[in-house]
Fold this sequence. Notes:
Blueprint: H1 14-35, H2 46-54, E1 65-68, E2 78-81, H3 85-108, H4 111-131, H5 135-153, H6 159-174, H7 181-205, H8 207-212, H9 218-222, H10 230-251, H11 260-277
Antiparallel strand pairs: 1-2
Amino acid sequence: MFGYVKPKREELKIKDDAFYKATYCGICKRMKALLGPLSTATLTYDSVFLALLRMALVPDEDISASKRRCALHPIKKRNILNRNDALDYTVRVFAELTYLKLEDDLSDESGAVRMAKRLARPAVRKAKSRSGLSEALAASMKAHLDRITELEKENCPSADLCAAPFGELLAEVFAYEVADKHTALGMREIGRHLGIFIYIADAAEDYAEDMEKSRFNPLVRMYEGKTLTASEREDIHTALCYHISRMEEALMFVDFGKKETLRRILSNIITLGLRERIAFLKGEEK
């Protein structure tokens, strides 16, 4: 979940955008507290999606914000979400994801890029060890990513097969220990389709570069290394929009109670943000 899952902020209500920013800052504060100050270098807006979704499980009275300063904005105080279980869970999950991504990148990269990531490895490993994420969940996440690695080494020609394990990884992360069966179903389905969306969208965006550098990409295998036609790009776009529509449907299963702000922001991200992110497939600006 790196770089794809963001809202179309100009379409958010002012109060919803303020809550979105407060959540981002709240995750940053919890990263510093749980993992150490260097961990915030890995902070991405993608993490806000998970935090917002998991806040459906947090009692209303446990969600609050306060005006505080931070190192990046020392002069003017800003609204920062106070600690809650959803923020802590998000920080723990993303510490694990960052570590697993770094380990995967180290096996693929070379030269200066590999050296830079090797230098970052001790700090990322330390953050992972401090995160306190369930060992069972961490092991399951690694198993799903290992399966993706196996498929890629086998030169699998199916984008759907390669994307499925990442879908299952996010399904498990999103619905982890959710008691209400309808909410768990909604979160699981959002995670599953988001994971598939991210994997295939990333493959589509990297198509030309991966083809040029002879790197594995299931779409390059599917289309036999040819430059994608407008019709083929449209086919990929339609397939990704299918996964967006499934997420839109699944969001209706999640019980937010009175926390409609959460639903509105998540709906914006799914319906508008993700579609905007794949506009490149239709020759439009992201």
